[in-house]
Amino acid sequence: MYITPTPHNEAALGEIAKTVLMPGDPLRAKEIADAFLEDYTCVNTVRNMLAFTGTYMGKKISVMGSGMGMPSIGIYSYELFHHYDVDCIIRVGSAGGISKKVGLRDIVAVMGASTNSNYASQFHLPGTFAPIADFSLLRHAVEIAEAKGLSIQVGNILSSDVFYNDLPEDSFTWEKMGILAVEMEAAALYMNAARAGKKALGLMTISDHLATGEALSSDERQTGFAEMIGLALDTAVTME
């Protein structure tokens, strides 16, 4: 464990919980704290990457933005795991559907995160690393979702470095390998967790579909995301 605070996080050691939910948008972190956490306090405002710590069902939980893309979540998740002794990070966010197996509002529990990123090169591995979720978290989330009657899909997604792709059709070539959806952060989170010996899981709501052009309205996103956040929190508090 290293010295805190860091250049990116002003929280003191102990102000961040062992379990952290990470949406991409720091303002969504504030919305989650407002809607779900009790007695929360803001523990980080550096670069406006807001972080809050409170309780949910009596358990200490933190929620912190990760920013967009693997370099950003790579920094914040690394510091949480190594500087703040966080044990578990659950990424909560949106994803664009690729496969016909997923539809709008579906929750995807990310079993594996394929990527077009070079993030893994830093580890100097003699082959290709497969970033995967912590199985205990994944299984627990799926069991809770099924008990609650939520529409959940489990599988592989694409963590892409590119949002505006010069060859948009590239996204659909991943479907033939069973890729369900695309987002931009999970692979880096899973790699950092593996390297640190910690736990990570990605839960995504399908907010739009690349094949059909369908997309949720802002109100529909709010409702769908609330179900996903509730699932993430229920998974976090019932793991122990």
Automatic annotation (TrEMBL):
Keyword entries, A-Z: Glycosyltransferase, Transferase
Reactions catalysed, as given in the entry: uridine + phosphate = alpha-D-ribose 1-phosphate + uracil; a purine D-ribonucleoside + phosphate = a purine nucleobase + alpha-D-ribose 1-phosphate; a purine 2'-deoxy-D-ribonucleoside + phosphate = a purine nucleobase + 2-deoxy-alpha-D-ribose 1-phosphate
Active site: D208
Enzyme class: transferase
Presence of the UniProt keyword Transferase in the record: yes
GO biological process: nucleoside catabolic process; purine nucleoside metabolic process
Stored CDD domains: PNP_EcPNPI-like
Domain Nucleoside phosphorylase: 19-215
Entry superkingdom: Bacteria
One annotated Gene Ontology cellular component of this protein: cytosol
Residues binding a purine D-ribonucleoside, per UniProt: H8, E183, M184, E185, S207, D208
Family annotation (InterPro entries): DeoD-type, Nucleoside_phosphorylase_CS, Nucleoside_phosphorylase_d, Nucleoside_phosphorylase_sf
Positions of phosphate binding: G24, R28, R47, R91, V92, G93, S94
The enzyme's E.C. designation: 2.4.2.1
GO molecular function per UniProt: purine-nucleoside phosphorylase activity; uridine phosphorylase activity
Stated role: Catalyzes the reversible phosphorolytic breakdown of the N-glycosidic bond in the beta-(deoxy)ribonucleoside molecules, with the formation of the corresponding free purine bases and pentose-1-phosphate.
Name this polypeptide is given: Purine nucleoside phosphorylase DeoD-type
Protein's organism: Fumia xinanensis
